[in-house]
Structure formats: C-alpha cells, structure tokens
Design brief:
This protein is of the alpha+beta class. It is 30% helix and 37% strand. Strands 1-2-3-4-5-12-6-11-10-9-8-7 form a twelve-stranded mixed beta sheet, with helices on both faces. A hairpin with a 2-residue loop joins strand 3 and strand 4. Helix 6 crosses helix 7. It is elongated and about 70 Å long.
C-alpha cells in the first residue's frame, strides 16, 4: 500500500487503485488541530495503514473529528484507533412548554446593546475570555479579538452592575453565545432572555457544550428527550 497526500486529502492506494481516503481541513479560528473526515467503509484499510498517526506526524498537529453520537460504528472505530472523546455538544431546538416547572420568572431588568455601542464591545470582551477558557483544553482559540467579534450577532442582552455580569448574544430565535461572571445569578438572567425570545418566537435554538457551564445552565432550563449529540474526538 502507498500513502500519498493530495492537497486536502490523504489517499491509500495499491497498484494505482484507491483503497481509502481521509479528507483534511483547518478552522481559521482554531488552527492548532487538523480536522479530518473519512467514510465508514474505509476503516479497515485506514487501520491497517496506521494512517491517523501518519497524518498527525505529517500535519504536525493533533487530529480532530466532529461526529454524531448516533454514528456508533464510527465512534467505536475512533476509540479503537486511540481517539479520545473530548466534548459533547447538544444542538437544541426548544419550545416554551419544554421549560422545567417551578422556575423563577427570571431577572427583572436586562439591557440590550447593538454592535458599535460601548456596552456591546464590553460584552464581546467578556465572551472572548470565556470562549478562550472553555475551548483551551479542547482546541485553543487562535483568532484575534477583532476577528472573533466579526462572527458574533449584532445584538446582545446583558446585565451590568458597574461591569458586565451576564451576556447572551442573540439573532432572531437563536441564542448564539452565553457567558457570565456570576454563576449564582446566571440562571435568572438566561431565563429572562429565554422568556423574552418566546414572546416573538415559537421555538428557540442554541448549542450547549458540556465543557461550558453557562451553556449547560441554559440547556438545563428545559426538559428534552434528545438522544443525539455532536461530539468532538481528539487524536
């Protein structure tokens, strides 16, 4: 068998016949890792060629795979090859009736800022530091603050007591990012944001990583029966 690299993929060939392929790509916001994709039918050949170690050596970086938890054959294969599951991500779509019973009414006074305002930038700074912290052990953030703010929604809800305490960046019915300085009062704030969004939307969408306590606080406001997650595996 022969292993060759062609731009953004590695090929395993035998006498000119392609036996398996692993595609690679990079994330400009998380450059430390090489992301990979492969097909399930190629796993036997990939394993025989010890291809993942060779890619990691060639790319001079850890390898990262993001995959649905329902793809059990792939996850079993990844584990057998030395990958470790580093993060569980929940992609949520919820309705008001999914809220847990007995929750308080939420923070009585929250503010709203838009891109260009001073408080908006301060919210960005708080989120930037929170994002760096929660991603450090998985795949460190490599983007600058200015580049990071370009991907954020133009609106943010927040609470300010001398400085910004709680933050929720929103776009229509999407809660894109949340963070906080005070875990003890964050639930009331994010519940108030949720209730505000339900005033204009039938459902709300957000993503919650198990390594991010603020996002998981948001998730835990709701009773859901979702069995699928999107997980990060690192080699």
């Amino acid at each position: 068998m022969k292993i060759t690299k062609h731009k953004d993929k590695y090929l395993i060939e035998n006498s000119g016949e392609q036996l398996a392929k692993v595609e690679t790509y990079r994330n400009t916001y998380h450059k430390n890792h090489c992301y990979i994709k492969f097909d399930l039918e190629d796993t036997a050949v990939i394993s025989e060629a010890n291809l993942f170690q060779k890619i990691a050596d060639e790319e001079k970086s850890p390898l990262q795979v993001m995959i649905s938890s329902l793809e059990t054959q792939k996850t079993t294969f990844l584990a057998s090859q030395g990958f470790k599951k580093a993060r569980i991500s929940h992609e949520m779509e919820v309705k008001k009736q999914d809220l847990l019973k007995g929750l308080s009414s939420g923070e009585s006074k929250i503010f709203k800022a838009i891109r260009g305002q001073n408080d908006y930038r301060e919210c960005c700074e708080l989120l930037f530091n929170h994002y760096k912290e929660t991603h450090q052990a998985i795949n460190p953030l490599s983007a600058t603050f200015e580049d990071f703010t370009k991907i954020l929604p133009a609106e943010v809800y927040y609470v300010k007591n001398n400085s910004i305490q709680h933050v929720a960046f929103v776009s229509d019915n999407l809660i894109a990012y949340v963070c906080s300085k005070d875990e003890s009062t964050f639930e009331n704030f994010v519940l108030a944001v949720v209730n505000k969004l339900f005033e204009e939307n039938q459902s709300i969408e957000f993503e919650a990583d198990d390594v991010d306590w603020a996002a998981m606080t948001l998730k835990n406001l709701f009773l859901t029966d979702s069995t699928e997650s999107f997980d990060t595996w690192i080699y």
